[in-house]
Each structure stands twice: as C-alpha cells, then as structure tokens.
C-alpha cells in the first residue's frame, strides 16, 4: 500500500479518544520538534500554547502514513498556523530553526534540567533559574532549601533519569503484589500507565490496586508501605489520601482522590529477569549527558559530593513507582484514568462533557441530564456509556 493519502480516507477526529494511536509513530521528525515547543510553552507557563503544540504532535502520531508534503495535511484538525510552519520548515530544510535555537537556549536547557529532578516543577525550576542557578552542582552547592521530595530526587537523580524497562516494571509489580497479598490475598495489582499501553520503557511504574470486597482495601496502602519499608525496599515515600495538591494545580482535570503513594523503590538488580539494566532506547539525552558530565551516570560513576549516593557497581536501582488504591466499584474508571496517555484522558473528558453532557473522572461518570452516576465494571462499558468505539490501551498513545 502506498503512503499516499486521499480525500476518501476516513476523517481524523480532533478528539484523541476517537483516534487509534499506536506506538508506531511515522512522523517522529515532526512530533519531536513539536514536543520541544510544547515543553517550552510549559516552561513559560503558557498553557494554551502548550496544549496547542501537544495536540498538533498527537494528531501527527495517529496518522497511518508519513507526512511528506504539506498536502498530506489537508483536512487534518488541530494544526495551527505555527505548527504548520514548523512542519513546512522540517519538510523543506530537515529541521526547524526555532526548535534548533530553543535547544541551545540557556533557560530552556536549565528548566529542562531542573524539572527532570523528582519533585521539581516549572515554578521551582524557574525560581532557581532567576536566582542564577544553572547546573545541578550549583544547586547542590547553594544554600537553597529543598523539600524532602527534592532531596530524594537529587540523591537518586542518576538512577531516576534512566528509563525504567518493562522487565523492571514487571518485577516491581510482582514484588508489590507479593507484599499486598500478605495482607489481602485476593487483591489485584495491575500495571497501568505507559507500560499498559505497550511502551517498552517509561519514567515510572504505575500500579493500581483493588479488592473485590469493597472496603477491604482500606488501610492497605499503609500496611504495604510499612512492610516494604521494613524489607528495605523503600528509598522515599509520600502517601497522600485526598489532599493531592500537586496535581490539583498542575492538571486539575486529572486530579483524583484515591489513596496513593509516590515512591522511590529500591529494586535489587538480581530481581530482574532480563539482563540489560543499563541500556535502553528513549534516553533523555540532555539529562543523561549531564549526569555523565558530572561523573554521576554511566558505569564508572562516582560523585565526590557528600549527598550523592556513590554508585560504583551498586546492585540496586532507584525507580519511581506510583501506587494507587481504588475501591472495586470505581476500579474500571481508575484503570481508564491511570492508563493514559495524558492527552487521551483529557480528550475523553472533553468529549464526555461536550457531546454527552457527562462528567468523567478516575472515580466515575456522571450524567448531568439524568442526574445520575453510570456504573461500569469494565473499560468497554465506559466507552459504551460515552457512545465511543472501544480503544484498547495499545491504541491510546495519543
Ligand atoms: P511514562 O511514565 O512512561 O513516562 O508515561 P505515563 O505512564 O503515560 O505517564 P504517567 O505520568 O506515569 O501518568 C500515567 C497516568 O496516570 C496519566 O494518565 C495520568 C495519571 N496520573 C498520574 N498521577 C496522577 C495523579 O496524581 N492523579 C491522577 N488523577 N492521575 C494521575 O500519573
Ligand atoms: Mn507512568
Ligand atoms: Mn505515574
């Protein structure tokens, strides 16, 4: 089949939940550039611009062909003038001047560096930048007061910037499941997030926990965390119940009230079945290179700084893990909400509101006209309530 597109092709929806987006992205060249522009808009706290570039990037990811000429974009929604200009430039010159300049830009580089630390958001990174800080060394040397979370983020930085592999995610799932079963033998521990969408690596491991007998799951999270802490599996933990302020301000739409725990997990390397722990694609080159420059990352890394975990041949890896506990009656909604991608979730909610007058969250679906909650035991039922074709997790990589 040729890569050509014709007017008879099925129209592309502006809603990510009406598109099938696999990991087979034929338009990497464009989406990588748009992602950088989206990221920079985020660093400038320009939400509208951030979303516009994110949407443009997402729509290109869903196309079953590679864009080779501007004509290929006929009838494709969500592409603003700016995004089109970027695509045109890449088609003509192989790259985009604005993006090339941006990746050399000191503020962009610094904010990217600082926000790659666990616990550091744009506001904090920008404050540090304005105070004249540029590198992690300068940050550590400064007298700036860090939160407990940021301290842990810096301490395990070199590990946390290395992508988590599927094999690692799977062994952590099994370890957590074993811990959970000590207290509730029939509980379910499900791998969600990017790994459920078929990604081979990710920035963390997202685990959703539930139990058939609703109510039994109460108190479980504390028990499990305590037990794992005693086993020496926990480097950092932050349990929240329903005061998840971080997410409320950052992404109010994705905010939920489940008991959850943001962890830094200590994974013994011999617990992982597959050999290659240190290599993986999809590296964040800026952050990884920086770690190497600092003598932090890579194989032979040691750091003179007193606060750094000295790393020569250590037999474990620090890994970010999100644990979420959902009551059984909300499980399908929680599963859908925690599988992502972010943009897919966002568009599901937007679609529900605009076309169905319904409010979707990770807890429930509320019909604003019938004034009632719609129950669902499976994700398929939720899509059916919304009048949408079912999109499996592997096709939610919007
Ligand atoms: P990655 O980790 O592989 O980089 O990608 P990901 O798995 O898609 O991203 P993620 O940041 O781990 O998020 C996965 C989904 O979980 C996403 O759809 C949003 C949701 N999510 C969090 N944290 C929170 C939270 O605190 N509250 C709510 N409601 N949702 C959250 O990750
Ligand atoms: Mn994740
Ligand atoms: Mn996560």
TrEMBL record:
It catalyses: DNA(n) + a 2'-deoxyribonucleoside 5'-triphosphate = DNA(n+1) + diphosphate. It comes from the Eukaryota. It is found in: Nucleus. Transmembrane segments: none annotated. Its cofactor is Mg(2+). Its EC number is 2.7.7.7. One of its GO terms (molecular function) is metal ion binding. Mg(2+) binds at residues 204, 206, 322. Its main location: nucleus. GO terms for cellular component: nucleus. GO terms for biological process: DNA recombination; double-strand break repair via nonhomologous end joining. Keywords: DNA recombination, Magnesium, Metal-binding, Nucleotidyltransferase, Nucleus, Phosphoprotein, Transferase. Belongs to the DNA polymerase type-X family. Gap-filling polymerase involved in repair of DNA double-strand breaks by non-homologous end joining (NHEJ). Participates in immunoglobulin (Ig) light chain gene rearrangement in V(D)J recombination. This is DNA-directed DNA/RNA polymerase mu. It comes from Chiloscyllium punctatum.
């Amino acid at each position: 089949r040729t890569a050509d597109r014709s007017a008879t092709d099925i129209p592309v929806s502006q809603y990510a939940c009406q598109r099938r987006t696999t990991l087979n992205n034929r338009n990497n060249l464009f989406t990588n550039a748009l992602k950088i522009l989206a990221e920079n808009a985020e660093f400038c706290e320009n939400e509208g611009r951030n979303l516009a570039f994110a949407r443009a990037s997402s729509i290109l990811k869903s196309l079953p062909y590679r864009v080779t000429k501007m004509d290929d974009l006929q009838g494709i929604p969500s592409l603003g003038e700016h995004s089109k200009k970027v695509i045109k430039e890449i088609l003509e010159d192989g790259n985009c001047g604005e993006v090339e300049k941006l990746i050399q830009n000191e503020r962009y580089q610094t904010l990217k560096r600082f926000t790659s630390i666990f616990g550091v958001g744009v506001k904090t990174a920008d404050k540090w930048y304005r105070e004249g800080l540029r590198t992690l060394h300068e940050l550590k040397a400064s007298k700036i007061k860090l939160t407990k979370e940021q301290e842990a983020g810096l301490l395990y930085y070199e590990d946390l910037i290395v992508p988590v592999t599927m094999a690692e995610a799977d062994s952590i799932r099994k370890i957590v499941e074993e811990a959970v079963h000590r207290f509730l033998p029939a509980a379910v521990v499900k791998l969600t997030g990017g790994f459920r969408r078929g990604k081979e690596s990710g920035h963390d491991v997202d685990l959703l926990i539930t139990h058939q007998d609703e109510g039994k799951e109460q108190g479980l999270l504390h028990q499990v965390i305590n037990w794992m802490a005693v086993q020496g599996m926990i480097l950092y933990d932050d349990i929240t119940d329903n005061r998840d302020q971080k997410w409320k301000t950052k992404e109010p739409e994705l905010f939920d009230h489940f008991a959850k725990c943001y962890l830094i997990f200590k994974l013994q390397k011999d617990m992982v079945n597959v050999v290659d722990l240190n290599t993986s694609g999809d590296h964040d080159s800026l952050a990884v290179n920086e770690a190497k420059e600092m003598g932090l990352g890579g194989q032979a890394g040691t750091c003179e700084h007193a606060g750094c975990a000295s790393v020569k041949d250590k037999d474990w890896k620090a890994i970010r893990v999100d644990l979420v506990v959902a009551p059984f009656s909300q499980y399908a909604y929680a599963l859908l909400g925690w599988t992502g991608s972010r943009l897919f979730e966002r568009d599901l909610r937007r679609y529900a509101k605009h076309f169905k007058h319904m409010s979707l969250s990770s807890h429930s679906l509320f019909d604003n006209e019938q004034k009632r909650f719609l129950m669902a035991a499976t994700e398929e039922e939720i899509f059916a309530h919304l009048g949408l074709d079912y999109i499996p997790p592997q096709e939610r990589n919007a």
